[in-house]
Write a structure and sequence with these properties.
Elements lengths: L8 H21 L4 H23 L5 H10 L8 H20 L8 H12 L30 H14 L6 H15 L6 H15 L12 H12 L4 H19 L9 E2 H5 L8 H9 L5 E4 L2 E4 L1 H16 L1
Antiparallel strand pairs: 1-3, 2-3
The site of magnesium ion has 2 residues, from loops.
């Protein structure tokens, strides 16, 4: 269970390097101004809640989610349950921030608590409790393990994260945790929302901002999990890197003197640009250049593209 095929590693080296550098820039820029920090945290809480709930089937839009969180408004035509899902997720995020600190160590109690918040007032009988029966995941290429094995598997997973026997970096560790957790599927319901919270305990403990899996990527996310079930972490790792980078960029943009990101369409239409949209989009999707996706568009900087091209030419000449 704890063997990991790391043949993906070479293809991710530049991406990991870039994320580590960005984190270093952010660390040097800390502490961020209190007001900026507060705004970013609030925006992330809304996005995180919207995206995670939406992946799970909640029909509130980003704007509606924001209104429920910020103004306590009830949205006409939406069920009480959907409102609870928003409120609960916000409480779970608050809880997560409250327990995270420099020497934090992942423990099952915290994961159960997160799950307890996620399902509170909705599925009270399951909230904060491991399942005691079988489950199936629709569309999945496997059946989760027998309920009797769940407590031990969760303990082993946590030990794996804490001891890190393979020497994985933080993003790999959060990715493997994410996958193994939903593979175990410890709860009758709420596994996805809980793991998208809990994986951030690992990232945030290491000083990364919380990463958000986007609703727009739902299909890719499910495919990535099926690949991971077959031992291939490539796709899931790419999604995780993109999620981490997106949050890093949000924080970095709050630092003074940062280069501004523009849509690829905008960049390639600038005078003196000789590369095309297709090519740059491909590099962005593959994680080869510093870029992030917002809605349907990819954003990057001219410098990121030019650095990449220059680097390639240099490699060719060697
Ligand atoms: N093929 C798969 N293999 C492993 N895990 C999967 C697969 N498909 C979906 N999942 C995970 O299961 C979650 C759904 O489980 P569920 O208990 O209903 O959680 P939630 O209610 O929070 O959505 C998804 O969000 C995803 O994390
Ligand atoms: Mg569910």
């Amino acid at each position: 269970m704890w063997e990991i095929d790391r043949t993906y590693y070479d293809g991710f080296e530049t991406t990991f390097q870039r994320l580590i550098e960005k984190k270093q820039v952010l660390d040097k820029g800390r502490p961020l101004p209190q007001s900026a920090l507060h705004k970013i945290k609030e925006a992330l809480t809304i996005e995180w809640t919207y995206n995670s709930n939406s992946i799970e089937g909640n029909t509130l839009s980003l704007r509606e989610t924001q209104m429920v969180i910020q103004e306590g408004i009830t949205i006409k035509g939406k069920s009480l349950r959907e409102h609870f899902e928003v409120k609960n997720h916000e409480v779970a995020i608050d809880y997560l921030y409250s327990i995270i600190h420099e020497n934090y160590q992942l423990q099952s109690r915290d994961i159960l608590n997160l799950h307890g918040y996620v399902l509170r007032s909705i599925e009270e009988e399951f909230a904060g409790r491991l399942r005691n029966g079988g489950v199936r995941i629709s569309g999945a290429n496997f059946i989760p393990p027998n309920a009797q094995k769940v407590p031990d598997l969760i303990d082993e997973l946590i030990a794996f994260v804490l001891n890190n026997p393979l020497g994985l970096n933080t993003i790999e560790l959060a990715t493997v945790f994410h996958h193994k957790f939903v593979w175990i599927h410890p709860f009758f319901d709420g596994n996805g929302r809980t793991v998208r919270l809990a994986m951030n305990l690992i990232l945030m403990q290491a000083g990364f901002p919380p990463a958000i899996i986007l609703k727009n990527d739902r299909k890719k996310y499910y495919e990535a999990l099926n690949q991971a079930n077959n031992g291939n972490y490539q796709k899931l790792l790419l999604l995780m890197c993109q999620a981490v980078e997106r949050s890093l960029n949000i924080y970095l943009n709050a630092l003074p003197g940062q280069e501004s990101y523009e849509s690829i369409a905008t960049i390639v239409s600038e005078p003196g640009v000789s590369y095309g949209q297709e090519y740059v989009s491909l590099l962005a999707r593959q994680g080869k250049i510093d870029a992030y996706k917002e809605g349907r568009n990819w954003f990057t900087t001219r410098k990121a593209i030019e650095d990449y091209i220059e680097n390639r030419q240099r490699k060719r000449q060697l």
